[in-house]
Amino acid sequence: MTSSAPAAYTEIMNWFIPAVAGIFGAVLGSFANVAIYRLPRENLSVNKPKLSFCPKCGKQIAWHDNIPVLSYILLAGKCRNCKAGISPRYPLVEILCALLFVMCAYYFALPGKWVEFGIAAAFCLSMVIITFIDIDFRIIPDVIDKPGMALAPLLSFAAPGLHLSAFTELLSWFGVEWQLSGPFTLADRGLAVASSLLGIAVGAGLTYGVGVVGKAVFKKEAMGFGDVKLMGMIGGILGWQAVILTFFLGSVIGAVIGVTLMLISRRKDPHIAFGPFLAAAAVLVLFYQPQIRHFILVTYPKWLAGV
Fold this sequence. Notes:
Blueprint: H1 4-38, H2 70-74, H3 89-109, H4 114-137, H5 142-158, H6 164-173, H7 186-218, H8 225-238, H9 240-265, H10 275-305
């Protein structure tokens, strides 16, 4: 009886924690919708006004009409007051945030990495907000990326495991061996801060450099400064290797979607923002960095060699 109790408890936690994370993610997805709508607009902020309102008629939305996903279904996608249609993007954002929080639970919370879970969940939420604001307005709000860069070293101190191993790998290239074993020491955490600062420098520097070269070659703006700050934030939180993978993967995704849109619209410049591709790539790298590295460095070269 006692031997089976821990196994039963583990089995319950394996679905209970992701389920709770998903519900929490849907609720914060509702907050993300508020941020997406309000942050780019003047005279609005995430806490002014305090209550949600219909963007068509301006009427306040009752709490029972603001339940993530469920309220949209019960209202048949229409405002209760003015009967104007509600964009299906609202429940889609809530579902997306729920799914991302479930993934964060599987990758971080279930292994007991609760600090990492909190950081990863907040990171995913910020990437969702940035994506849709950049799609609508082609801007990345300073209120997200600047605090993200400022907090990144502190977050790395709190959760060195997010990218410290990549920094110790870099040190080994220069003959400095740093062993990571057992609980993180104060020295490990200090090294994680240095790793975060390097990630900021690599992320912002790489993007800024590409922008300068692109502008010189194509005679037009190739990379917005918002992308520079975004990559600095990503590098600070995920590390130098992750930010390079993010830039590469984001460029590939952007190129594929950009070419597809050009073929569909038959326009030479489909005017698409780069931020959403970087954000999507950063989330993929957060969860699948080892697999992505293996594909780029091992699997793909074998394909080219015909092995």
